[in-house]
Amino acid sequence: MKKLMLLALVSAALSACATTPRLPKTVVNANDTAPYPEAMSGYTRYAIHLPALPDENNARVEVFIGKEMSVDCNAHSLAATVKQEELKGWGYSYYVVENVNNGISTLMACPANVTKNKFVTINHNLGWLDYNSQLPIVFYVPNDLNVKYRVWQPKAKIMQANAE
User: Fold this and answer.
1) How far apart are CA 133 and CA 128, in angstroms?
2) Please, are residues 150 and 62 in contact by the beta-carbon 8 Å criterion?
3) Are 97 and 65 in contact (CB under 8 A)?
4) Which of 26, 48, 78, 101 is the most exposed place for a label (fewest CB within 10 A)?
């Protein structure tokens, strides 16, 4: 009888453990995933930690690298080089921003002394990055720059085009 009672308790405990939802691992730092290098002198390391999505294959990440500047009515952008590097022995990628210049702007005639604060970005060639909640997207940028991002997902219904 005691064995039967013990067996019932053990099976109840095991079934309770089997149905308990697993909590996702909380990543606090990029080094929780892999040994990313520390930021070089004059640089800041930024890491984008993405939450898990039901269908990550349909999401993309757009990255903006730049800084707040007081600008006139012209279109402004910064010039820089963004290099993709590999974390040796791990195969993970990270990005390094180098050779930042004040950039370019159009030369329209603007009203005198009319400026506004705007986030001026680098025109990089990264395109949209794949969405992966398992790995951080790591950037090393000069201290005066910031990294922002936007997640793109399809929300609209997919429509059939007409064959003509």
Assistant:
1) 15
2) yes
3) yes
4) 26
Please write down the HEC assignment for all residues of the chain.
Answer: CHHHHHHHHHHHHHHHHHHCCCCCCCCCCHHHCCCCCCCCCCEEEEEECCCCCCCHHHCEEEEEEEEEEEECCCCEEEEEEEEEEEECCCCEEEEEEEEEEEEEECCCCCCCCCCEEEEEEECCCCCCEECCCCCCEEEEEECCCEEEEEEECCCCCCCCCCCC
What is the C-alpha to C-alpha distance for residues 8 and 4, in angstroms, rounded to an integer?
6
Q: What is the pLDDT of residues 11-64, one digit of tens each?
A: 555 555 554 444 455 556 888 888 999 999 999 999 999 999 999 999 999 999
Name the pairing type of β-strands 92-105 and 137-142.
Answer: parallel
Tell me the average pLDDT of the chain: 85
* Spacing of C-alpha 125 from chain mean position: 15
The neighbouring-strand residues paired with 70 are: 117
pTM over 0.90? The answer is no
Lookup result for tokens 């990543």: 27
Q: Are 66 and 13 in contact (CB under 8 A)?
A: no
Written as six digits, the tokens of 78 are 């910064």
